[in-house]
Amino acid sequence: MTHHPLPTVAILGAGSMGGAIAQGIARSGGGIAVTVTNRSTAKAAELEGLAGVTSLALADVPTANTDAAASADIVLIGVKPAMVPDLLREIEGHLRPGTLIVSLAAGVTIATFESIVGDAIPVVRSMPNTPAVVGKAVTGIAGGTTATPEHLASVRRLFETCGVVIEVPEEKIDALSTISGSGPAYVFLLVEALTEAARGKGFDEADARVMAEQTFIGAAALLAASGEDPAELRRRVTSPKGTTERAIGVLQTGNLDGLFAQATDAALARARELAAGA
Hints:
By secondary structure, this protein is α/β, with parallel strands linked by helices. The protein folds into two domains: 9-169, NAD(P)-binding Rossmann-like Domain (Rossmann fold, 3-Layer(aba) Sandwich); 183-274, Orthogonal Bundle (ProC C-terminal domain-like fold). The chain has helices at residues 16-28, 41-46, 64-71, 84-91, 110-117, 149-160, 173-181, 183-200, 205-226, 230-237, 243-253, 256-275, and strands at 9-12, 34-38, 53-57, 74-77, 100-103, 123-127, 137-143, 163-167. It is elongated.
């Protein structure tokens, strides 16, 4: 593979996650050239005008997938999991040796990829999350059998344009997805619940939302800026025998640790069912 200082990237099937990665790369201003493909002209139009991004619709350019794959150093596979094998069969004859394939497809194993693209094409499986759109993703990556440390380093750099990266063995990807992949939804649910509590105290919709949302956003920013342990920051808000301490006491009776363990276990069980085709 010719090592450009900056790789050219193709994102085939730039749905919500592929689109988020494209936006993250574009926003990072790193000068990486990205080609994204979608089936419809309308979908393609949503990603037009991003810096360094060429957005193609298969409706307009039927060979967009093979064209993009043939000219890229790194090819991200963003189509729905069920469509992955067909897409790989479509592009595999067009890939240059040493082109790196990165899967964004939940539940599709590296073995499935390798069985179609063969040994000359290294594969890395990834699990980003939606805050990629604002450059705050957590992305898990796992290397396939022929992926070298250099390949993983390239994929790490790519995903670091839109957040932080954690390297795990493939068998941990599903578990990671129950924490960081689904995690934004857990946070939004907590924000909804706190907003509802504010409404119950007689605040109108607008004030309730500002209170709850900005408190989460502010607390997250404080956590990020301080570098402190969350338990330490919690102690600082919780004066002995004060109002916060009493509220926390009530929340602890709900066994939050156990509830999150159960919730993430349920998500993991579902991931296994999906992998088994249920």
